[in-house]
Amino acid sequence: MSKRAHRRGWFALCALALAFIALPSAAQQPQRDADYRLISPQPVATGERVEVLEFFFYACPYCNELEPLLERWRKRKPADVVFRRVPVVRHDSWMPLAKTYYTLEAMGETERLHAAVYHGVHVDDLALSQEKFLTEWVEKQGLERDQFMAIYRSDAIREKVELSRRMTVDYEIKATPTLVVDGRFLTSSGMTDGVPRVIPVLDGLISLARQRRLATSGK
């Protein structure tokens, strides 16, 4: 074989190798109306940073499955991304767990106890929607029972729950867990064909949101 032919063979092999390397990256690109869908544009409160909203329900087993994956993602999320949780309120029976989340938030305890609520519901099988069991759980977590319940029953928490109810409708939330990126791109574990794929799709949607921002800014 001539040197020229030998070089052409190597070039062909290198091109083939690069093509195979590129395949996984291409496969990770989220597909519209398969991995995600567009919703009516919603206001974004994060300024120049990309907003990620997690719509969740403590009693949802898929939300429970996503929680540790999402927690790992939060530790490595880009600096230009802001993450926020929104408890879904589709029925009145969902209100107590939404109130629990907002009460923990008001007390500055979500970082410590958010995963613990999931554990209480899904592992310990506690009916935390009922105040009797909730107050027992609260005391076991080292919180002051009367303080917690005063906040839990307050008008401020009731208003936050009503906002969650409106957002559940406005953001077209049909299932949990659902993630909405920059008020426009919606994905869920049902769309991604399983909970583990949610995070790769989320990363892809953040990239799409950045591209959209760049295109609309005219830069």
Question: How would you describe this structure in keywords?
Answer:
alpha+beta, Glutaredoxin, globular, 5-stranded mixed sheet, 219 residues, 11% strand
Walk me through the structure.
The protein is α+β, with helices and mostly antiparallel strands. It has one domain: Glutaredoxin. The protein contains eight helices and five strands. Strands 1-5-4-2-3 form a five-stranded mixed sheet, with helices on both faces. The radius of gyration is 22 Å and the shape is globular.
Taken together, the total number of domains comes to 1
Report the biggest beta sheet as strand number plus sense, adding barrel if it closes: 5 strands, mixed
Helix and strand run: HEEHEHHHHHEEH
Residue-averaged pLDDT: 89
Strand content: 5-15%
The CATH superfamily is Glutaredoxin
Low-confidence stretches: 9-27
Query: Termini, distance in Å?
Result: 52 Å
Instruction: Give the fraction of residues assigned to helices.
Output: 40-55%
Structural class: alpha+beta
Query: How are the strands ordered across the major sheet?
Result: 1-5-4-2-3
CATH class: Alpha Beta
Question: Which architecture per CATH?
Answer: 3-Layer(aba) Sandwich
Total helices: the number is 8
Please give a quick description of this structure.
With 219 residues, the protein is of the alpha+beta class. Helices cover 55% and strands 11% of the residues.
Write the layout of secondary structure elements.
Layout: H1 3-27, E1 37-38, E2 50-56, H2 61-76, E3 81-87, H3 95-106, H4 110-122, H5 131-140, H6 145-152, H7 155-170, E4 178-181, E5 185-188, H8 198-217
Parallel strand pairs: 2-3
Antiparallel strand pairs: 1-5, 2-4, 4-5
Helix pairs in contact: 2-4, 3-6, 3-7
